[in-house]
Amino acid sequence: MHIAVLGASRNTGRYFVKQALEKNADIQITILARNPDNLPFTSEELSKITVVKGDALVKQDIARTIEGVDIILCSLGAKPQGLGKMSDEGIEEVGVKSIVEIIKETRAGNMPRLIMVSSTGVGTNSDVPYVMRPFYSLFLRKPLQHKQVAEKAIKNSGITYTIVRPALLTSGELTKKYRADVVCSGYTISRRDVAHFVLEQCVIENKWPNSSLSIAY
């Protein structure tokens, strides 16, 4: 099984790659990185990863990364740069649109599965606890708008997909104890547990095809 990961240099994508390598299963990993020298992986881990130097904002770089893979994990997202400021705002929207275009142009007869790490609160607030809704509206409005555009592009693409919407992400430990369903409201979830869910259920067990679901504690 060959998996391409966009957004592997930090957060959920990083933990997905580490957990996939720890499984010691028949999994081949290719990642896209702007700065391969700064990747958060050990030398041993890097020896098992194919690294493509490039930018997720550049369609040609994504094309080189996803060529011939079975699964694409898109874990792209803006990076906080202080109160109310973000770098790479809208990167998930641009990246997903490029992925869809590339697949349709080059792999119409052999489409990979596309898994996107999105967020609760996209399109609806039914999976956001009532007391958290003002926070989402005030501070996450723009990122959620970009994720919504990306989700829509995926759903309209004809590609087999899974959209995973985590609650507010934390740097907590891996617990393997979480809830995931089409409607699942909760306050937080650790990035490690989101990565575990994606790897174990979406990839290895091949669950949740053409589904959008929320995950939380």
From TrEMBL:
What residues form the membrane-spanning segments? none
Highest taxon in the source lineage: Eukaryota
Q: Where is the NAD(P)-binding domain?
A: 7-201
Which Gene3D superfamilies does this one have?
NAD(P)-binding Rossmann-like Domain (3.40.50.720)
Cross-referenced PANTHER family, in alphabetical order?
Answer: FLAVIN REDUCTASE-RELATED, UPF0659 PROTEIN YMR090W
> This protein is called what?
NAD(P)-binding domain-containing protein
> What organism does the UniProt record list as the source?
Coemansia brasiliensis
* Lineage, highest ranks first: Eukaryota, Fungi, Fungi incertae sedis, Zoopagomycota, Kickxellomycotina
